[in-house]
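Reviewers asked in the last cycle whether our approach scales beyond single polypeptides. To address this, we selected a multi-component target totalling 416 residues and predicted its structure end to end. The input consisted of the following lines:
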Amino acid sequence: MDLANLVKNIEIELLKLIVLLLKTGAMRVEEVRTVAKDFLSFLPFQNHQALVSALKVFTEKHNQFISLYQGIVKINENKKINELIAKMRLFTK
Amino acid sequence: MVLPIIAAVGAAGIEGGSAVIAGGTVAAVGAEAVGAGAMEAVKAVEAVAVTAEKGVTGAALRVANFVEQGLEKVKQGAHPQGILEKLSNIPEVIPENFDITATVVKPEVTIPVPQNTEVTSEAQKFIDQKTETSLAKWDEEHHVPDKNRDPEAYKQWCQDRWQAEQDFIVDTKTDLIMQDWDKQNPEPDKAADSKGHEDWTKKREEQKSKLKDEVKKETKKQKESEMAEVMEKINRLKMLYQERMDIIEGIKAVKGKPEKTEQDKIDLAKFQVRKSELDTAIKILETDLKSRAGRAAPLVTLTIMTALMSMMIYKIGQEQGTF
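The resulting structure, written as structure tokens, was:
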């Protein structure tokens, strides 16, 4: 997944979480405003690493969205594993 | 690649009663398995929900509905960033006619600086072919000096060609990687959005410049390592030659003894075996260097041939007792 699509997916997930938190009373409208502002302040992401770092900072401040950071960390792990496997395939050719 | 997001929220307090976890929603972008980390996320969101205020305000519900409407529009092609922009400026008192999707905010162009400048083997083939064609044209435009009549001019020509080859590789590779960037960041219509087009052009230039620097560094490193590899082999060959000459001296010395002891005989046999080993190693290394010289860039070829020639002269000189 390229960076632009990854960011788009994260934004969608962020909005879904906002809806759920608003509906359950776990978030107020004022907080939504801050959350949206804080998230937008990180844009644009220069690269994948910048996205990960930004999400870490963002979710440290707004820990209701920790799953966004955990998701990206998981993606990173998978990416590294896939790169490692590809490298090992080259060695064993 | 998949982003596993757990969005589990309890329905605490919606009805004003006790906190009840009504259910969890696993919203995964894709179908990746959700691990332990994600379960922690469920707990985290559940915890937030449980401790939430007992009552949900009408404003909150209205905003939630607006966002849901916006998300529906996203399915039809709208960008979620536009909704976030709208949320970041949501008014204290939400007007009746408030529409989260009314303003279409264009997503800001991201500049994905490549993490590395690796290309696929097919792309590498394309780069090699293009470089070869460009070098052929360069050769036509740059006359090769006679290396016997004007060795200095020939050496300079080899160095210029070495640099030209690197420049061709850098240009082709940069253009190739930029094609991916262009796919990710389509060019806005200049007539419809001149400011957007201007921003895009500026960002593209910045990106290309950064990328070119990166590719230049990498290509220089590669070419230097190519030369370093050759130099390492030349140095190894020089050492083998030196050892061979020492062994020959040893053989001569033992053979020259009027009376040979048992130890002399053992030494002589050992020296002769070692000389034979060195002859084989030298031959292999020389063949390798010669074959490399046949297909390498002129500067590498020149380096190899100069080294081989000097070693040949050294060998002959040693054998004839000149050195």
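Chain A touches chain B through 55 residues (CB under 8 Å). We regard this as preliminary and will revisit it once experimental data from Aim 1 are available.
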